[in-house]
Specification:
Layout: H1 2-30, H2 45-66, H3 76-104, H4 108-113, H5 116-128, H6 137-157, H7 166-192, H8 199-223, H9 229-232, H10 236-267, H11 270-276, H12 278-291, H13 298-330
């Protein structure tokens, strides 16, 4: 009996180790989005978006070919849902995240984006009402204090590389939070309404749709001066950074990150995996500090700690209360 318990415990710990490692990998590669504007040279974030999403779209097309037996007939409504989700959760979200990092600095952007799990929890609670709103007061106090500390300090450290003021970057980051919240809620609802849909096929269709959308936008964006590819070209001598980062993130972030997070979600409790999302903020801020060639100040560390504690507390409050409600329902 003791041997059985020991084996179960070892299997559980092994699953936790694999799940946590996968979650750290996923959040690490996702956080690279925050530094893209600072590593692609003279090219714009629109150039990078075109490059990245076309490559990841090709990967998605290969997945669809390999899983063609799991694709059911798609209607106009299905295609419209996929187009909307890919626009908000992929193309639009990436452009807003990159813009926020470029305008407000690569520290503020991931700090504000850490609010995503909290906003998702609060949005879910609006529908379910499973958590008393007073339970969020202390976590939100920590979050607000952390954001004020980070934003107030980093605002004076960074003035962005564009003519627009830094607060526009904060607005872009908030817009990204709204887009990702909408994507999370609508994507979950779309999959619930399509119970026979294979999740890998669904993800592949989103990748293909995002590639089609950015390609269709290319002529319009070029006429507006948003793309530098028509002027700079794509030769290795001038576009090596675009090639390296575009290919890397297409596979690591769009494909590898999703795959790794799927592994983490299957091996870890929901409450734990939801809290591990904050590592995207930690990695993003670390990479941002590297691009700024500086060490974190005591104010940076204090703001980050307050923010992360608040996010973890808010996420834990929601999921622990939700789990308790499910247990009572079973009883």
């Amino acid at each position: 009996m003791n041997n059985d318990r020991k084996m179960l415990y070892q299997n559980k710990m092994a699953n936790y180790a694999i799940g946590i490692s996968a979650a750290l990998f996923a959040t690490g590669v996702w956080s690279l989005n925050f530094i893209i504007p600072f590593v692609i040279g003279r090219y714009s974030i629109f150039d990078f978006a075109l490059f990245r999403f076309v490559i990841s779209g090709c990967v998605g097309a290969i997945v669809l070919v390999l899983r063609r037996d799991r694709i059911y007939r798609m209607g106009i409504k299905d295609m419209a849902v996929i187009a909307w989700l890919s626009l908000t959760g992929y193309v639009g979200f990436f452009l807003l995240v990159s813009s926020s990092a470029m305008l407000a600095g690569p520290v503020i952007a991931p700090a504000i984006l850490s609010l995503v799990p909290v906003v998702l929890s609060i949005s879910g609670n609006l529908y379910q009402g499973s958590v008393a709103w007073r339970s969020f007061f202390i976590p939100l106090f920590f979050i607000a204090t952390g954001l004020i500390v980070l934003n107030g300090y980093d605002y004076t450290m960074h003035r962005g590389y564009q003519l627009l003021p830094p607060y526009m970057g904060m607005l872009c980051a908030m817009g990204a939070v709204i887009l990702w919240t909408c994507f999370g809620l609508f994507n979950q609802n779309a999959l619930e309404n399509r119970p026979t849909m294979d999740s890998s096929v669904w993800s592949a269709m989103l990748l293909v749709a995002s590639a089609v959308e950015i390609v269709l936008f290319f002529p319009i964006g070029s006429s507006m001066g948003l793309f530098e590819i028509p002027t700079l070209g794509l030769s290795w001598s001038s576009a090596h950074s675009l090639w390296l980062w575009g290919v890397s993130l297409a596979f690591l972030s769009s494909v590898g990150g999703v795959w790794a997070w799927t592994i983490a979600s299957r091996r870890l409790p929901v409450a734990l995996s939801a809290q591990l999302v904050v590592f995207e903020t930690i990695f993003g801020i670390c990479f941002g500090l590297i691009t700024q060639s500086r060490l974190p100040s005591f104010i940076d560390i204090g703001g980050i700690v307050l923010l992360i504690v608040g996010v973890v507390m808010a996420t834990r409050v929601f999921y622990m209360s939700h789990s308790y409600t499910q247990i009572k329902h079973v009883e």
